[in-house]
Every structure is written in structure tokens, then in C-alpha cells.
Design a protein that fits this description.
Number of strands: 6
Radius of gyration: 17 Å
Mean pLDDT: 94
Order of helices and strands: HHHEHEHHHEEHHEHEHH
Helix content: 40-55%
Bound molecules: fe (ii) ion
CATH superfamily: Aromatic amino acid hydroxylase
CATH topology: Phenylalanine Hydroxylase
Low-confidence stretches: none
Number of domains: 1
CATH architecture: Orthogonal Bundle
CATH class: Mainly Alpha
Strand order of the largest sheet: 4-3-6-5
Strand content: 5-15%
């Protein structure tokens, strides 16, 4: 597939619009009672609808007004250094191509349904964004230390990508890897996967595989809890970096 560097809206085909709509409707239905209300609120804020593939210029003007963040278009997954550098500048790397109808359920790398539908709405949430930027800032500071970067990879994975959140006695999803995948949604909410209360030390010590449904999901109380954990993250990382030198 030809993967564009920038979004040229007129290049989207009827099939692209149809794929966006099918995925959008299907995931909202799957997630109906199981997605964080922060995500649903954010989805309204960014004005995404099933009938229209988001236009990045419009999305960016909403995000810039809400939190100062914006989308930075990329053709594929960015190298870690580039990804963290952009996070630190309040820019999220997003693809602008969409999967084909034969690929509704499985894709080897993220397309815009994952990057835009699942990741982007919460970029309008100031607390979430502040936490996200902290990951970028701290990771960038230690970008040449592979052991520290591995910890940030895990932190990113178990929060932004596969994070869950308590709502009263239930567990809802806010991580983009859950929100964008029908299979992951079902698995994450089932008894087959382990749910662990948010704990930085445990996250730093928990490995993951990107090519399977997750075994472990970490559950936060709120985005405030995430943000308040930043000093602890910093402290643990500084200690680790010191040991490594
Ligand atoms: Fe992602």
C-alpha cells in the first residue's frame, strides 16, 4: 500500500469512507458500556462522526484550542527517538491512510482508524495530555539509555495504548489498542485477561508482546492519578539511570 506523508483529503475513495464508517459504528457499539466516559466526551469534542473521515487541519485547530496539541502526519510507525521528541513538543504521530475492507479485523501496523479514531480524541483532554507530554519529556532526557527507554515503552504500552480505567465497580477502556480493535475489546473486558491496579513499579517490570492479545491490563482510577504519578516515575527513572552509569 502506498502510504502518504500528508493527508490529501481528495484522495480518499468511497471504499475508504465506508471502511471508516463500518469500523466507527462497530467499535462504538462494541464499546458502548465499556469505554471511558472521558473518551466519549472527547470524541464529541473533536467532532468525529461515522460519516466523515476526519480532516487533519480541522482536527488540529480543535486540539490546538483545547490543549495545544496537534497531529503530526507520518507514513508509518516512527522510530522511538522521533516519537518521544514529537510527544515532548505536544505532537502526536498519526497515519492518514486507512485499511482496506479485507483488513477490517487485522492489520500489521496502525492505520488512521487506530491513530485517529482511538488515539486522537483524548488529545483534547488537558490532564491526559499533561501526562502524555511528561512521558515524552522524560523519555527524551534519557533517549540514549536503552534500559530506561524500555521502561517508558512499557509505561506507554500499559497506559496510552492498553490502559483501562475504573468506573464505579466496572472497568472501562481508554487505551487506543483496545478502543480500535473489536477482538482486543472483547478480550480486555473478559475474565481471560488479568486486570492489575495501576502501579508504576509493576508496569516497569511487566513485559508485553505486541503481536498477541494482551495478557495484562493495568487499571487506573482517573487521569488525575496518572498525572500525579509523574514525580514517582521521574524518581524511579533517575535512580535507574544513575545505576546504569
Ligand atoms: Fe497506538
Amino acid at each position: 500500500m502506498n502510504k502518504p506523508l500528508t493527508q490529501i483529503y481528495s484522495n480518499y475513495t468511497q471504499e475508504d469512507f465506508k471502511v471508516w464508517k463500518v469500523l466507527f459504528d462497530r467499535q462504538l457499539k462494541n464499546l458502548e458500556h465499556y469505554v471511558s466516559h472521558d473518551f466519549l466526551e472527547a470524541l464529541e469534542k473533536v467532532k468525529f462522526t461515522p460519516n466523515r473521515i476526519p480532516y487533519f487541519k480541522e482536527v488540529n485547530s480543535i486540539l490546538l484550542e483545547q490543549t495545544g496539541w496537534s497531529l503530526h502526519t507520518v507514513p508509518c510507525i516512527s522510530p522511538q527517538c522521533e516519537f518521544f521528541r514529537l510527544l515532548s513538543q505536544e505532537k502526536f504521530t498519526a497515519t492518514c491512510w486507512i485499511r482496506k475492507k479485507e483488513q477490517l479485523d487485522y492489520l500489521e501496523e496502525p492505520d488512521m482508524f487506530h491513530d485517529v479514531f482511538a488515539h486522537t480524541p483524548l488529545l483534547s483532554n488537558p490532564t491526559y495530555c499533561e501526562f502524555f507530554k511528561s512521558i515524552g519529556d522524560l523519555a527524551l532526557k534519557h533517549i540514549h539509555d536503552p534500559i530506561v527507554i524500555q521502561k517508558f515503552g512499557r509505561l506507554y504500552w500499559f497506559t496510552i495504548e492498553f490502559g483501562m480505567i475504573y468506573k464505579n465497580n466496572e472497568i472501562n477502556a481508554f487505551g487506543a489498542g483496545v478502543i480500535s480493535s473489536a477482538g482486543e475489546t472483547k478480550h480486555a473486558l473478559s475474565v481471560r485477561s488479568k486486570k492489575i491496579d495501576f502501579n508504576i513499579e509493576k508496569i516497569f517490570n511487566t513485559n508485553f508482546r505486541a503481536d498477541i492479545l494482551q495478557e495484562n491490563y493495568f487499571v487506573i482510577d482517573s487521569f488525575d492519578q496518572l498525572l500525579k504519578s509523574v514525580p514517582e516515575i521521574e524518581q524511579k527513572i533517575e535512580l535507574l539511570a544513575e545505576i546504569n552509569t
